[in-house]
Here is the input.
Amino acid sequence: MKKATVLFALAFWSSACIQAGWTRETRDKPVPAEALVELGPGAGLDACLARLGAPLHVQEVAVDGAQGAMLVYGWYESRGWGVDVSVPLQERASASVSYDQGTERMRGVALVFDADLLLDHWRDGLVRDLLGEGQRVRPQPVDG
Here is the structure.
């Protein structure tokens, strides 16, 4: 029984394709800290766009009871080891599995503007968390 299991495992893995690799990916550049200091509260939307360029995400948010806007800039660097395994099952079919250990975590900064489109404040952190802060509540159905 043990010998059959070993032979099966050898036959199974001998036809498999196993690849390992190191990857590194970088997207966009971090917002310079000095740019945020230069802009500061009260800076206009046009000045922020001129200094930082186009944001990754824009959404409407409430600021002091009025509708404002939030611009989110994001960047990340991902690197790590990965393993891919592909095993033929039949002549024209195969199964594959991938495992990736990359540390892809998008960092960012959110600039929040008031109703007059003047910078009220900014926050930094993970983009997923920054976007969660400004999410609007979806309308609920009304029974009628």
